[in-house]
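Page 37, continued from 36.
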């Protein structure tokens, strides 16, 4: 075979290999583009550290990260300048965790203030009741907790014989603040003098009236327990039987009947200057007769 023929065959083989490599690379690129399309990203401003209610936002508290466009939460900011570049500071209204996106609903407008009214739903009110170290669950109630409110009415001044009673007045109320502390990051229990609760207008009236006619106390609820319960009033009679009382069972009488003196009394009748003593027969209690 001539040298020319050998050169032609070598060039043809080389071109064939190059063509195969190019075709394979093109096919792999097509498969990659179809199987894993490139997701669009955009900058989102997040908290560089944990922020509490009332914190003032500064550049040192913020940083921008890339975020998938399809997953950007509504109300987020795409630039740090949008938050702190106006010259007027913003205040945090709700606790924000580290790396959590900053949302417009969790901060004030530029130049705004951290007022409790800004975090209340439109149909709710905030009302404060006075407590002490006992009625406030020894300080273990913290902002963000859920509580029940109990009302205890003492003896009436006009009717000392009336019986004291405790009612479960309201259930599942959210605690907005303890004294003047509204941060939900508060962890250590402290003895409080006042507790601010989130209530409806009707519930606000009930709490105000209840504080005037009796004593209000709090019962801390499990954070995952949102269900209302049926509770009956508790009176002094319930304390006599305690935990052993059976619902609906009549009170037991003493097994030993009381003795009755059939002639334990008499009357004295005076007619003019004469006096006469007449014995009186006492009636027996039929419930005491065996």
């Amino acid at each position: 075979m001539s040298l020319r023929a050998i050169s032609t065959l070598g060039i043809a083989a080389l071109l064939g290999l190059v063509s195969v490599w190019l075709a394979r690379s093109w096919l792999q690129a097509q498969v990659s583009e179809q199987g894993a399309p490139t997701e669009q990203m955009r900058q989102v401003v997040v908290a560089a550290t944990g922020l509490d209610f009332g914190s003032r936002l500064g550049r040192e508290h913020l940083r921008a990260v890339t975020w998938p466009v399809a997953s950007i939460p509504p109300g987020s900011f795409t630039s740090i300048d949008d938050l702190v570049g106006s010259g007027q500071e913003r205040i945090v209204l709700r606790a924000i965790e580290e790396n959590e996106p900053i949302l417009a609903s969790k901060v004030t407008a530029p130049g705004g203030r951290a007022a409790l009214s800004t975090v209340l739903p439109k149909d709710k009110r905030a009302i404060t009741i006075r407590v002490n170290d006992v009625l406030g669950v020894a300080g273990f109630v913290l902002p963000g907790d859920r509580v029940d409110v109990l009302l205890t009415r003492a003896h009436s001044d006009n009717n000392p014989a009336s019986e004291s009673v405790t009612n479960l007045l309201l259930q599942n109320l959210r605690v907005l603040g303890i004294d003047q502390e509204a941060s939900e990051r508060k962890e250590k229990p402290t003895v409080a003098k006042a507790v601010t609760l989130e209530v409806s207008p009707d519930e606000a009236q009930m709490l105000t009236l209840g504080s005037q006619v009796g004593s209000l106390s709090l019962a801390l609820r499990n954070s995952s327990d949102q269900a209302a319960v049926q509770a009956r009033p508790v009176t002094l009679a319930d304390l006599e039987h305690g935990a052993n009382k059976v619902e609906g069972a009549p009170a037991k009488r003493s097994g030993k009947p009381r003795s009755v003196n059939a002639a334990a009394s008499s009357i004295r009748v005076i007619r003019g200057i004469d006096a006469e003593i007449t014995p009186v027969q006492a009636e027996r209690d039929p419930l005491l007769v065996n």
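Residues 35 and 44 are 27 Å apart (CA to CA). Flag for discussion at group meeting. The longest helix spans residues 3-35.
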